[in-house]
Structures are given as structure tokens and as C-alpha cells.
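User: Sorry, what's this?
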Amino acid sequence: MTTPPKRLRGIDALRGAAALGVVVYHAVVQGPHVLPNNVLQYPVRLVQFASSFGYIGVFLFFVISGFCIHLQWARTKAAGTEPEIRFISFWKRRIRRLYPPYLIALLLFMLLTAATVGLNLTQFFFYDLGMHLLMLHNLDPNTCYTINGVFWTLAIEEQLYLAYFLLLFIRIRWGWGVTLAVCLLARLGWMGFSHLVWLKTGFGIPVPEAAASHWFTWALGAIGVEVMFGLVKLRGWSRDLRLATVLIVAASALSTYLPSISKDTLLHDTSWFLIHPLWGLGFFIVVNRTVLAENSWLRQAKLPSMVSFFSTLGIFSYSIYLTHELVIMQSWRWTNPTWLQLVNVWMVIIPATIIFAWLFFWFCEKPFMTTKPQPQITQITPILQEESA
């Protein structure tokens, strides 16, 4: 049995598409929403509406993250060796790979703030900075969206890495069925805990910004990599893009209409509980189907041009995620403030964001990446079992 290549271009492409979706979302949402007084207002409205869902790329990131983190364990298991991932060495690799670029980006944002509006060196400033340095800022609503509003997702990633060893223990001891149930109970428990704290103290503990809320989604990515190696056998639904579309659209619709549902009702709480797991399941199917498609790309020795483009973005998607707000925040200073701002988004802001992230990648991220020579692989092992649904 052969093993997948070190780098799956399809996964890179999904990562790149998710990053671009988040960039478009922030670039359009944060810009002025001036509409033309003619027929052009309708395509402008359509683009604004479509881009408003770009944020769901975050949940695709969570699935991909679980997939990539579990890759070493699954690769070793598939090779017939009992996997052993040591806590200290695992965290050394994670910190060396992710923390330095994060610190540099954090410094850039602080310098930009100092140069524009100035820094107010209060007690809260140092508390806020400390929470960001410790990757705990997503647990306090007062620090969750400060400095750089997208950094809350990075804190979730770090906390999910910490929970990985508990996930492994439950998976090895009781299997994936129990593991997923525990992950869903963690989401439910966090929602209940947050509500109880609010009732008792009036303090709002973040729910969608908490790692416990997305543990299920992240675990699905880990299952996906075991499916790829044939360690887990799933039926045909797990690669059905039609089902994935239904799940993603359903979650997006629930997210859109949730504010109109009365709070503290069973319908509201049930809808809120289902949104992220539905996105997770939808993107889990997309990941499975993408990895399956890689077989044919390798056999044909030809990568589709769209996949090639997005996979290139995916290689430095972490840098895109770290820095895109920096470019977007500054872009309104020198772009047209009218409805043509939507044109500026595509012609100026997004290209500038990608170029800046590419430079940041080469000078601030790549030096901390460790690569080892890998044997050339010409074919991926059978990924999904051909079983009836």
C-alpha cells in the first residue's frame, strides 16, 4: 500500500479558497455599501450578498486543520506501526511553525495602531496584549476582536491542538462514534455553561469563538484523513457533493435567519446548536471528495488550472489570514469611497492583500517552516470505499 504524498494539492486548494473567501468577506463587509442609482445596483447587491457568506471559510479551515494535524498519526498507523505522538515534541513543532509569524503580525498591528490612532497604555492594554500572547483572547468578549479581529480563530486552533491528545485518547479507547458524541456534548456543555455564567454574573462568555464549540468540526477533519488511508470505511454519502451543498446551504440559511428567531426558545437554541456541525459535515464531504479527486489528477499527471491557482494561495494561506486585515484597514485611505469601492475590492484590495501576504510568507513565515525530503509518490492509496449508501 502506498501513502499519500507529503502535500495534497487539493487540500491546499481548499485552504486557499477558504482564505480568499474570508478576505473577500472582510473587504466587502468593511467597505461602504453605497449603491448606484441605476440597473447596476442589482449585480452589486448580488455580489455583496454572495460575499457576505465568505466567513464560512473559517469552518472549512477547522476541518482542514483537524485533517492535517492527524495526518502523522494516520500515516504511521496505515504503515502498520503503532503511532506515538509525544506531547512536548508536538508542541515544539507547533510553536516553532506558527508562533513566530503570529508574533510578527501582532507587532505589525501594534505598530500600525501606534502610528495612526496611538496606543493607550492602560491596564486593559497590557491585559489585552497578554491574552493575545497566550492565545486566550477568544475567551473574553472584551479581547476577542481587539488588535486584529480575525485572531480569535487562531486562538481556537491552538486550543484544539491542546485538545488533540484527549481526542486521540477517546478515539483509541472507544472509537470515533463515542469521540464525536463527546465533541457534540462539549459544544452543548459550553453553550449551557456560558448561559449559566451569564444568568449568575452577567458576564458573556463567547460561544461561537470557543474551541469547545468547534471540536466536532475539527474532529471530522481527523476522520477524513483516516478515511484517506483506509483506516475508516464510510459509505457513499461521505463524498456526495449534493449532500454537502444541502448541508452548507442549510447551515448558511440558519445563520442568516437566526437573529429573527426569538431568543431563549427551543427553536433558537436548536438552530444555534446545529449551525456549525452542519457546516462541518458539509465541508467534511468536500474534503473527502477533493482527496478522492487527487487520485485522478496524479494518474493524469495534470492538475486543473483552478486547483493549481487556489493551491498556490493555500501554500501561504496562513500569511493571508494573518495579514489581510492590515491591508484592508489601510485600503480605504486610498480607494474610491463610492459604490465603485466594490470594483476596488477586486482590482486593488484583494491583489494588494495577496501580494503583501506573499511577501510576509517569504520573509516572516517560510524561515520557520521545517521541510524534510520526501519520496516521490505516484499514486494515492484507495481513499473512500465503494459501498452503497
In short: DSSP finds 14 helices and no strands in the chain. The chain has a mean pLDDT of 88.
